[in-house]
Amino acid sequence: MEKILERLEIIRDQIDGFFTLKEMRYLVHGGRISHIKGLMAQVLNIKPIIFVEKVKGIYQSAGQAISLKNAINQIVSMNVEKFADAKVRVQLVHGSNMDSIEMLRSKIQEKMNVFFEDVVPVAPVLGAHTGPTLVGIVIGPMAVFSNLI
User: Fold this and answer.
1) Tens digit of pLDDT for each residue in 121-139?
2) Domain of 63?
3) Is the residue at 27 inside a domain?
4) Among 2, 19, 109, 121, which lies 20 to 30 A Cα-Cα from 131?
């Protein structure tokens, strides 16, 4: 049990999750952002980039972009910068947004050395707050998983 917990800490420290979404209606209705912020984001076509904070496990803003395409490009760029030329293990997640999944997959394949896991829907807790337009990535160095596969 002790070795498993140690390994989970190592994995947690090296894995990141980033998400964006096409519309923020569910964030507004769930009280995550105000109606005014949601309206302004809709009018200006601003898309949030959300990440999972590792200590408390809560979702926080990593930035924002104008358009979903730019948000996806920014997520990819952040990970290219972090992981450089290392082989990475990637799991793509979505609310019900397969078009954006394909865009994200394509952008990552262009820029990184990737091993893809199966595409999966997000957990119901995240999906309830973000809605069906969510698209995201869970990414970490392949070396962390080398003796687990």
Assistant:
1) 988 877 777 888 889 999 9
2) 14-144
3) yes
4) 109
